[in-house]
Each structure stands twice: as structure tokens, then as C-alpha cells.
Amino acid sequence: MGFGKDFIFGLATSAAQIEGGAFDDGRGPSIWDEFAKIPGKIHNNTPPTTACGSYRHFDRDLKNLLDVGVDSYRMSISWSRVLPEGKGALNQKGVDYYKRCFDKLLSAGIKPNVTLYHWDLPQALEDENGWVNRDTVGYFSDYAYKMFELYGDVVPLWSTVNEPIATYVGYALGGFAPGRTNEKEGNQARHNILVAHGAAVDAFRASKAKGDIGIVIDIWKRHALTDSPEDKAIEKDQDERNWKFYTDPVLGGSYSDYLLEHLAAEGTLMDIRPGDLELMHRPIDYYGLNVYNRVPVTADKQAEADFTQGGNFLNNKTEYYPKAIYDAIKLVNDLYKLRIPIIVTENGTYAIGSEPRDPATGMIEDDDRIKYVSGFLSWLEKALDEGYDVRGYYLWSLMDNYEWTAAYNFRFGIYETDFETFECKPKKSALWYRDFIKKVKEK
Ligand code: NOJ
Predict the structure, then answer these.
(1) DSSP element (H, E) containing 203
(2) Could you tell which of 215, 373, 403, 408 is best to mutate to test the pocket of ligand 1, judged by most ligand atoms within 8 Å of the CB?
(3) Annotated catalytic residue: which of 19, 126, 163, 235?
(4) Chain segment 226-255, per-residue pLDDT in tens
């Protein structure tokens, strides 16, 4: 068993994080362009205006993808590049850009896996109350339908929404764009985006698109550090309010009673319209799992100190817990009796600031990243050996890019990016991933 010949190995990015060219060729601003103007929200107040310059340098990215030898490239469409107002007339230059990307990938034998919404709502729609406005559901499915009609005959893999929790962080916690802080509106926004996901799946089935469609939801499983009822309660509460808010309705067909009761008691329950649950639960072709780590929780100061002192940590001080991928795969299968395959749409780790270099060659020696990725791949292989249906794995990310509020300070790439010259050079992990893929294919 293990990784079969058809297993998809990929690399992932998203539009706002790599394209730059924020105002080129008629692109409209997204909420991240606006959010970056609020002082103190983003590391060094850096806006995503230039990022990795992929809008002008797609051939550079293509070459690097070919050098690593991936089967697939996960990227996203910037909604405001193709529809500067979020609706209405298409921006032909933006449309042509993605057509060129997809054609080039396909000619190179690399399958595009395309995300429609990776956190970059057109600012014009935010000006109409963004994801809190129910009309945004319709604007999203209209945009999705246009993309399916344009590219549906060539793109084999689609996802509607990436990590819907980002809307909650943006509307309730103020941590992401658009930087709003209203709990009830945050719940409405995250509900609406799940309904929008379902409406886009309907648009997909009604369009001429031929490929498969899914949604990407991240799982950060909470782990109580002690067996005390208090810690168990924290674990349950945080699981419910975080990833289960999304996986329950999408994969299971309903919100949990726990969640509905708590939000009602807190006065923050969203408006759920008749038919919403059915829409959110529309049959999809695969579930996209983003998995990075577990989250230990405890109210016990001693248990916390023991964990901090005795745990297994990477240089960036995050826990090294590669079993998280196996746990998440098993968990969703147990909870929802999944009858669709899983694709691991993101997994990776970051360095803060600079990374060590080989003094002789100048190449970045990111041994921590290699340790992290190989650990996760081993646990993924165990899941495959046990018969779980996982079809692909995308490493985040092809190159160092705009890591949202951390801007260019958190580096997730297997290629290093020079954000001035837009030159990208392989790190040691790029060669390691290339060799790993090669070995699997030669088996
Ligand atoms: C989640 C997001 O999908 C992606 O945009 C982000 O850069 C990575 N994980 C790393 O934080």
C-alpha cells in the first residue's frame, strides 16, 4: 500500500499571497489591500501589493514546479482580478492571465487545482457589508459559475472556499481582513460563506465543468493535557467552535446541538434560513484537509509548564506533532463516515525571519522543514496503509510568500523569494521533496 503511482504530490499557493500586481491591468482591490492600510495590523504595515510578483513571473513558478516534479499545483483565482467590482463585467486581462497559467500547467503535465476563494473578497463587496450580507452568497456563486464556464473544460480540480474560519477571524476577531470585531456578525459571515460554498457547488453541477469539486477546511484538533473534567470541557468547547463549526454542516449535514445552544445562549446565533443546511451539505467530490498541528489545551498551570518544558518543539517554537495528519484523517472518517476521498490540500511549516545557509553553496538548509514534512508524510503513509482514502498531498508552500498579518516575516517556502528582485532559489527542502516524489514514482 502506501503512496501508489496515482497519488498526487503537489505544491500550494494562493493569489493574494504570491501574485502582486495588485493594481495591474484593471484589478480591483481586495479586503487585504484595504486592511493593510490600518496601522499595526500587519508586520511592518506591509501591504500585499507586490508579493512574489507571480502575476508577471508565472514562468519562473512553472519552472520551479517542473524542477520539483510535482503532479499538481494548487493556486487560487483573485476574484477582484477577474471581477474588479466582485460582480458585473469581467476584466479580460485578468481572465487571460489565468487561462495562460492553466494552459501552461497543463502543457507541462501539471494538474491545476484551483481555489475560488482564498480570503481575498473584492473590497467593492465589503463596501456592501461583505460576508455578513446575504447577497454575497449570490455574488459568489455568479462569480464561480463564470469561472466554471471559462475554465471548467480544462481545470480538473476545484475547491470553493479555503479555510472558512478566516471569515470569523476577519469579522469577529479583527485579526484578519476586513478587521471587524462583532461576534454575531462573525458567526453570520462564516455561516454565509458555507452557504456560498453550497451555492457554488450547485453552479458547478449546472455548468459545463468536467472536473471534481470540494471545499478546504483546516483541522486543528484540541488535545486536553490532563483528564480533568475542566480540561476535557475546554477541548470540547474549542473543537466545537473552531473546525467543527465547518465540518459538521458540510460533511455531516447539521450544526451540533452544543454549538446552537451555546450561540443562542450567548445571543450570537446567526440567521439560518430554510434550505441552508441542505445547501451546505451538497454532495462534493472530495474533502480538502489543511493540517498543520494539534492544539494542546489545559487550565492546569503545572500541566502547561510540563508540556512547555518536556514537549517536542521545532526552532519556531511550534510543537513537532506529525501524527496530527493521521489523527485528522481518522477523525473525519469516524465522525462523518466519509464516503468521499480526502486530499491533503496544505501542510507545511515556517521559519521566522531568516533561515540558516550552507556557507559553501549559500543554499538555505531548512532541516527543520524537512523533518516536519517527512514526519507528516510518514503518518500519512500509515493512514494509507490502513486503507483510508487519501488521494493527494500539497506542501505549503512553493515559495516564501505574503503570510497575511506576518507579511514576509514567516517563511513557508521550499523556495526562498527575494521580494525585491523576485528571484526564487531552491532551499534544501525543495531538493528533498523532489527526491521523495521521484522515489515514490520509481517504486
Ligand atoms: C493556511 C492558509 O490557507 C494559507 O493561506 C496560509 O499561508 C497557510 N495556512 C500557512 O499559515
Answers:
(1) helix 183-206
(2) 403
(3) 163
(4) 999 999 999 999 999 999 999 999 999 999
* Pairing of β 415-417 and β 157-162: unpaired
Q: How confident is the model at residue 330 (pLDDT cuts 50, 70, 90)?
A: very high
* Per-residue confidence (pLDDT) for residue 443, from 0 to 100: 85
Which residue in 124, 135, 8 sits closest to 395, CA to CA? 8
Condensed to tens digits (0 to 9), the pLDDT of residues 122-131 reads 999 999 999 9
Three-class SS state of 319: strand
For 433, the 3-state DSSP assignment is: helix
> Which protein residues are within 6 Å of ligand 1, measured from CB?
14, 17, 162-163, 290, 346, 396, 403, 412
CA distance 377 to 383: 10
Q: Per residue in 395-429, pLDDT tens?
A: 999 999 999 999 999 999 999 999 999 999 999 99
Whether 116 and 147 have beta carbons less than 8 Å apart is answered as: yes
Per CATH, domain 8-442 is 3.20.20.80: yes
Ligand 1 atom nearest to CA at 218: 1
DSSP 8-state symbol, 357: B
| Separation CA 115–CA 112 (nearest Å) | 10
- What span, in angstroms and rounded, lies between the C-alpha atoms of 326 and 379? 6
Ligand 1 mutation target, pool 396, 399, 408, most atoms within 8 A of CB? 396
How far is Cα 126 from Cα 85, in angstroms, rounded to an integer?
10
Instruction: Spell out the residues 6+ positions from residue 354 whose beta carbon is closer than 8 angstroms to its own.
Output: none
Q: Decide if 416 is catalytic.
A: no
